[in-house]
Amino acid sequence: MFADRARIYVRSGKGGDGHVSFRREKYVPNGGPDGGDGGNGGDVIFVVDEGMNTLTNYRHVTKYRAGDGEEGGKKNCHGSNGADIVLKVPPGTVVKDSETGKVILDMAYKKEPVVFLKGGHGGRGNRTYVTSTMQAPKYAQPGQPAKELTVDLELKCIADVGLVGYPSVGKSTFLARVTNARPKIAAYHFTTLVPNLGVVDLGDKNGFVIADIPGIIEGASEGTGLGLQFLRHIERTKVIIHIVDAASVDGRDPINDIHVINEELKKYNKDIENRPQVIAANKVDLLDDIGYETVIEMLKEEFPEDQGYKIFPISAVSGKGINELLWYVNDLVKASPREIIEFEPEIDLSMQDDPELPFEVRKSDEEEGVYIVEGPRIEKMLGYTNLESEKGFDFFQKFLRDNGILTQLEALGCIDGDTVRMYFLEFDYYK
Fold first, then answer.
1. Is residue 301 within 8 Å of residue 254, measured between CB atoms?
2. pLDDT score of 223
3. For 126-137, how does the pLDDT look when each residue is reduced to its tens digit (9 = 90+)?
4. Which residues pair with 12 in a beta bridge?
5. What stretches of 131-271 adopt beta strand conformation (E)?
6. First vs last Cα of the chain: how many Å apart?
7. Cut 0.70: pTM above it
8. Rounded Cα gap, residues 324 and 17, in angstroms
9. Distance, CA of 10 to CA of 22 (rounded, Å)
């Protein structure tokens, strides 16, 4: 089963607590504190596995926990570190925060393992707190807490060229002819139910990777058909081959089809419309000379070359015109910017809530009915949370409630309708 999305829970390990103990042995003159440090918690690590092409494994197992660090021991024994947990993902995987939908990590081109959640640091034992004035400390440092997060994994195929077009226009037949891919081919709509990747080899180090994106029809960007499910796979492509049925075998208007699908691509991601697009007028072997000239002329008039289009009459069955099309696309891929299409992180996990950072809840001295909540901890949480989404706002409300901020506001006299200011945010207070 092809799976390109999954939601999982990940948790790093808790740091082990420092130990409190004292050495008291007969005939041993230098006794005293000998509590060891706790071990560090294990990390959550993502690594790209070139042999994977789906996220199926994460559909069956959804919770992943690294090992906790062990508590320190007496005789200055250091607790053992918790075991790391390594999550293998296919190339092109994007990790998003499930609460806000923001990108945390893009594993598209990462060659080395990436530490996603750092385990808690082990606490220091009482031996480390010995000073000239404190010879027998009876306390130790607790280990740092674990970090946990629920994330969405999304696979966005890595391909140079995206193949789009209405169902049954010949995309799968085209892919099977020009690559080593063997997609299912049949005479009915939505034959292709998953994205198919193939490699075009033109020899002498020329070629590119092509992805057949299924199910894009009118309304795809809003969830109609299969388009919304697979449109994400076209986001990394550099060039688009748009296949249309020039012979109108199913009674379709090729010109209208191009406009409709281009509009869906634009709605989904407006950057896609700026990429070079090649129009492959397929099934020309079914046209007579007059019909052939008429259709091609209409396409060239509607989609002129000076607007970034190039028309290629082809037949995916007979192979007519395909070689010229492939070499033209190969040149476009080579001329495309070498910058890797990678999604920039929208969330820095270091910006997550840090309980050690201070904050203050107070009543305004200048305005009646105005209360102020401020401090580094509040600013970090506001920077991390997307308050424009319902889930993000609920997440922040939970933070206020769990940390006693709402209780402090009420203790200061805050009532329904009063104004609460936080950094750049201002809202009316209601229970």
1. no
2. 44
3. 888 887 777 778
4. none
5. 148-155, 161-164, 196-203, 206-212, 239-245
6. 47
7. no
8. 68
9. 38
